[in-house]
Write a structure and sequence with these properties.
With 184 residues, the chain is mainly alpha-helical. It has two domains: 92 residues, no CATH class; 86 residues. It is built from ten helices and no strands.
């Protein structure tokens, strides 16, 4: 059993302490709680004490009241460490410039350009060979080009967002711009 396993039980009595138990500071807060309850520094012992001793609830509530600032600090440090790890992972992923990871969006762009060139040459060929079939060909091609262009639009936007995040900026969307315009 780990400290985070009893975070919910403790959180019902002392919410800040319970929240801190669930994070990186769990063992430090767990030791403090075990000391206040007079039990071994193990999650099982703390949980058993809470269930067996009616005064344990009062002790935990008093502990939280007396040490609220320290527990909030531990909880915030725990959350900061967690978010730092997530950010570090995201930066490593964004910073990876392998061909497989970074090359698929430009590949889609080149494929769209080649497709559009092929479409134009195909249309010229249809006009020369049998102009009566132009409407049928255009009907088929319009959906193909529209689908490729939609995928490319999403790719361009996402690549721009990735680059903005690399620079530490918050990417904005069309809806963000529209919302800002409406607030004016």
């Amino acid at each position: 059993m780990e400290w985070r396993d009893i975070a919910q039980t403790v959180g019902k009595i002392a919410p800040i302490a319970g929240g801190a138990l669930g994070g990186h500071a769990g063992s430090a807060v767990g030791r403090i709680i075990a000391g206040v309850l007079g039990v071994e520094e193990r999650p099982e012992a703390v949980e058993a004490a809470i269930q067996a001793d009616p005064q344990a609830v009062e002790r935990l509530q008093r502990l939280e009241q007396e040490h609220e600032r320290e527990m909030l600090k531990l909880s915030l440090e725990s959350e900061t460490a967690r978010l730092s790890e997530i950010n570090q992972t995201m930066r490593a992923e964004v910073g990876s410039e392998s061909t497989f990871r970074a090359g698929w969006r430009p590949f889609n762009g080149w494929m769209l350009a080649l497709s559009l060139a092929s479409v134009n040459f195909g249309l010229i060929g249809v006009i020369i060979m049998d102009p009566t079939q132009l409407s049928v060909v255009v009907d088929v091609l319009i959906w193909s080009v529209a689908a490729q262009a939609a995928v490319q639009g999403v790719n361009i936007k996402q690549r721009s967002n990735d680059k903005a995040r690399q620079l530490g900026q918050t990417p904005s969307s069309f809806m963000d711009a529209l919302s800002a315009f409406r607030k004016r």
